[in-house]
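Module 6 notes. Inverse folding takes a fixed backbone as the condition and produces residue identities as the prediction. Think of it as a translation problem where the source language is geometry and the target language is the twenty amino acids. Below is one complete input and output pair. Work through it position by position during the lab.
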């Protein structure tokens, strides 16, 4: 049996390591669109962007460790098509890679504004090269605008502010991450950013960009207000990287649609940000964009390939670091949930919040209390495992 992993990502590497750990002895090939060996993405918007880490520190494993996995890495060559029946992936350079089992781990692509293509000073942040290019621009600019009030946008705004850049955060929500955290926590997050020098222009969608001589000069809001900027970061979400799979026969709907085993077709699986699988316990189709799920799902799929026929039913979990604040979330949150503080005190910026819907605890959020939040995972109800 041979295995082809499409995507030299954390999820891709996690699949390889789990296969080897579980005793798989045969050939494994990893195909990656980037020229880099697998690296970690969460530090890109924080430690790498702020200049606290050298790029090499993001590598998930040193080269000598990778060599012990006995894996062939084919890097800098994007997948362009998949023949499900023949289990063959074709690449941009014309390669044809065939395997008995295929694992798709192609992740996400950043969403963009219609008028940003080719405009100097406008950035997205998904890859290591993106982070380095953005850092270089921020170091020489006086005013930056981050378009996007979710996790990535707020992390970038925090890093830019700590670099000494005058940064403004723009987005349609009333407060950062309001749709996820609800008003109690999101308003506290807004206070944190304001205290640390981030300007907030929230509650209004972005209409477009202003430019002069091929370089961005500002961000236009739907209200008509223009936010001046030397650098603009577009960070209002990402979409599953599935364009190359159109016409393959796989079901594509907000990701690669999979069954409870993360199987997209016979002998074809999906893991990480790109996978939308049926969570048997919650009885919903779920797609999680976070580092923890990438590793856990990869390990599960490796087991399924090797005959461990069990459904994948994780407790959703993610974290975000902004300034000196660490937020950890277990379960699922929603803006309309009933929120109560069960430990600590928001005034002291250390607390655990419990989220309830229809009487059941669906989520737990720890603000600078990661251990206490983790210990409350057993309280999760409402169909959570």
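Target side of the pair, the amino acids:
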């Amino acid at each position: 049996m041979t295995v082809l992993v499409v995507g030299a990502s954390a999820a891709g590497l996690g699949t390889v390591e789990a296969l080897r750990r579980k005793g798989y002895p045969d050939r494994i090939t990893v195909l990656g669109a980037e020229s880099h060996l697998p690296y970690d993405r969460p530090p890109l918007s924080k430690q790498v962007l702020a200049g606290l880490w050298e790029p090499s520190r993001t590598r998930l494993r040193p080269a000598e460790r990778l060599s012990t996995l006995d894996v062939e890495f084919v890097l800098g060559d994007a997948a362009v098509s998949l023949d499900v029946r023949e289990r063959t992936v074709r690449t941009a350079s014309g390669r044809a890679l065939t395997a008995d089992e295929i694992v798709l781990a192609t992740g996400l692509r950043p969403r963009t504004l219609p008028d940003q293509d080719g405009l100097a000073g406008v950035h997205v942040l998904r890859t290591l090269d993106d982070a380095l290019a953005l850092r270089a621009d921020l170091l020489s600019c006086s005013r930056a605008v981050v378009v996007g009030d979710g996790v990535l946008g707020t992390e970038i705004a925090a890093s830019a502010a700590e670099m000494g850049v005058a940064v403004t955060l723009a987005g349609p929500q009333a407060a950062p991450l309001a749709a996820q955290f609800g008003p109690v926590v999101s308003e506290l997050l807004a206070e944190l950013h304001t205290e640390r020098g981030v300007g907030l222009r929230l509650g209004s969608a972005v209409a477009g960009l202003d430019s002069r001589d091929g370089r961005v000069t500002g961000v236009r809001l739907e209200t008509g207000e223009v936010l001046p900027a030397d650098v603009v970061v577009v960070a209002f979400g990402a979409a599953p990287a599935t364009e190359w799979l159109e016409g393959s026969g796989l079901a594509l709907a907000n990701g690669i649609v999979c069954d409870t085993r993360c199987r997209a077709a016979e002998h074809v699986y999906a893991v990480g940000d790109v996978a939308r699988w049926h969570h048997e316990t919650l009885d919903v189709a779920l797609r999680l964009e976070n580092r923890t799920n990438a590793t856990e799902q990869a390990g599960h799929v490796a087991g399924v390939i090797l005959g461990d026929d069990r459904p994948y039913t994780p407790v959703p979990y993610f974290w975000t670091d902004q300034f000196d604040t660490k937020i950890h979330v277990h379960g699922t949150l929603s803006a309309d949930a009933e929120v109560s503080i069960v430990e600590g005190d928001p005034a002291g910026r250390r607390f655990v919040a419990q989220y309830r819907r229809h009487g059941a605890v669906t989520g737990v959020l720890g603000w600078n209390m990661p251990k206490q939040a983790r210990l409350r995972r057993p309280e999760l109800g409402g169909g959570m495992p």
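Reference fact for the lab report: The chain is about 20% helix and 30% strand.
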